[in-house]
Automatic annotation (TrEMBL):
Annotated protein name in UniProt: DUF1989 domain-containing protein
Organism (species): Cucurbitaria berberidis CBS 394.84
Pfam families tied to this protein: DUF1989
InterPro entries: DUF1989 (IPR018959)
Taxonomic lineage of the native organism: Eukaryota, Fungi, Dikarya, Ascomycota, Pezizomycotina
Residue ranges of every copy of the DUF1989 domain listed in the record: 33-204
PANTHER family with a match to the protein in the record: RE64534P
Length: 246
C-alpha cells in the first residue's frame, strides 16, 4: 500500500533537515534511519554527540550503551569494537540523580560508577528509567507469536559487536516514554522532529530499538521510523561532508 509509505517519508526529510543546521558547525553528520519496530547499533568515540530523533511523534526508543574496547590489532580493519562488561546502568543513574528524570547537563552512569553520557539537548524532557525492554515472552504470553521486541532488536544488531545471548541485553533508557510513577497511562510524549542529544564521555557501543509495542494505543498506535544523527568533529584534512544512510 502506497499511502503509509509516503506518510513515513514526507515528515522524515523535514525533521532530519533541521539537524544539519543546529548541530555543531565544524562537524561531520551521519544519519541513519531506524525502520519502524527494528534496532540499530553504532560505535561512537569520546566527545562525539548524537541525537535520537522521533521523526513522526509518540514513538518510544529504547537506548543502551556499553564501554567498548578495540579489537585485537591482528583482526580485520573493518572489525567492530567490542563491548566490555561496563555498561550504562539505569540503577546507578537513578542513584546519582536521586530520581528518574535526568535533565540537560546531567549524565547517565555505568555499572562501574562512571559517567558515560551527558545529555546535551532535549526537546522532550520526558523519558523513562524504570521499565525493562519489551521482550519476546511478553508478546508470546499475549498470544502474539513471533512479534518483534526491543530485546530481540538489540540482540540482533549487537551480534556483529559480539553479543552472544539475548540475556546480555541490558536495562534501557527509554527515550520519550511517559510512564510516571511506573504507570502505563501515556507512553509516548514526543512530537514529530523531537530529539534527545547525548555526548559520549567514553568510547562506546550504543544500541537503540524503535519499540514495536503496538498494543492499547502505545507508541501512538502506529510504530514509525526514528533516526540516529551522529555529529563527529572534523579532524585533519577531512572536509565538510554529509552522508545519509537510509
Ligand atoms: Zn519495546
Amino acid at each position: 500500500m502506497l499511502y503509509p509509505h509516503l506518510r513515513q517519508l514526507l515528515p522524515r526529510a523535514k525533521n532530519l533537515a533541521q539537524h544539519a543546521q543546529s548541530f555543531r558547525a565544524n562537524s561531520i553528520l551521519t544519519k541513519h534511519i531506524v525502520p519502524a519496530g527494528h534496532g540499530y547499533a553504532f560505535a561512537v568515540k569520546r566527545g562525539t554527540r548524537f541525537r535520537i530523533v522521533d521523526l513522526h511523534g509518540e514513538q518510544v526508543v529504547d537506548f543502551m550503551a556499553w564501554v567498548s574496547t578495540p579489537r585485537a590489532s591482528n583482526s580485520r580493519p573493518e572489525a567492530k569494537p567490542l563491548p566490555t562488561f561496563e555498561k550504562m546502568s539505569t540503577a546507578y543513574t537513578r542513584y546519582h540523580l536521586r530520581g528518574v528524570t535526568p535533565t540537560i547537563g546531567e549524565a547517565l552512569y555505568s555499572n562501574a560508577d562512571r559517567a558515560l553520557l551527558r545529555i546535551t539537548a532535549d526537546t522532550v524532557k520526558v523519558h523513562d528509567m524504570t521499565f525493562m525492554a519489551c521482550f519476546p515472552a511478553l508478546y508470546e504470553k499475549k498470544g502474539m507469536h513471533g512479534h518483534r521486541s526491543c530485546a530481540q532488536n538489540v540482540f540482533e544488531v549487537m551480534k556483529e559487536y559480539g553479543m552472544r545471548d539475548i540475556l546480555e541485553v541490558s536495562e534501557p533508557f527509554n527515550c520519550f516514554q511517559n510512564t510516571p510513577n511506573y504507570s502505563l497511562k501515556a507512553m509516548g510524549s514526543s512530537k514529530p522532529g523531537d530529539f534527545v542529544e547525548f555526548e559520549a564521555l567514553e568510547e562506546l557501543v550504543c544500541a537503540v530499538s524503535c519499540c514495536p509495542y503496538d498494543i492499547d494505543g502505545f507508541n501512538g498506535g502506529n510504530i514509525t521510523d526514528v533516526a540516529i544523527v551522529i555529529s563527529e568533529e572534523k579532524t585533519g584534512e577531512i572536509q565538510e561532508q554529509e552522508k545519509t544512510i537510509a
